[in-house]
Amino acid sequence: MTESAEKHLERVILNIRAADPALSGQEDLSAAEHERLARMHEGARPAFVTARRMLRASLGEYMGLLPGAIPLVQEGAGRVRIEGFSDNEPPFFSVSHTGAAEAGIAAVAVSETTPIGIDIQQLDPVMDWRRVAQRRFPSEDWALLANMSDEIGRMLFFTLWSIREAFVKMEDGKLMPYLRHVQVDLTARPPKLAAPTPGGREDAMIYFHFVPDHQLMIALVSADPVEIDLNCDIQPMERRPDPLLNAGDA
Fold it and tell me: Which of 138, 144, 154, 174 has the fewest CB within 10 Å, making it most exposed?
């Protein structure tokens, strides 16, 4: 790629924040989002509200609307969409969140030019990652991971998992086929796909980053190259009683 082409890459901001236990911004959620929130376990609410607040703010800047006016819709556990917009129509966006109320983290990215997918994973120190990798990852991956130390192997396991789940988000696929069949060449600079995805994509930009202080793996994939601006500010927030609004108060 030439220097002039690089200068014209879209700058995509990948925002990552600690989940807010105060559930700030829930007044901007839709009635359907409030219903979803009310059904959630208390510990899952802060990351959900924080992610939706960040998404609504980012989309509002792009669309020239107030955050509460963004017509977000979601069917079951499927992809969040903007009502009236097709899948191949900008803005493209992706959301991920992890952790419980005291340690939850939310991530959001929006692109004006290309489909994207993001995923964040906190390295679980007690997870039997070897058993999962053997059962769920391609045999080539397991052959490599099986001979690694626990520390290095765990890091690579969560790197591959987060990249594959980011592809799930971008292509609106099912997790298991992507865990089994997405092959990534991490030795390439930058990393690249070693085989087509279950959605048929043969090429994509792959970005990943590790935040040691929070044991957080971050992955972003995009159909076309973009410039990533990582805006990561994970400051712990004071735990407070769950301030869930009643549906009638929203």
Answer: 174
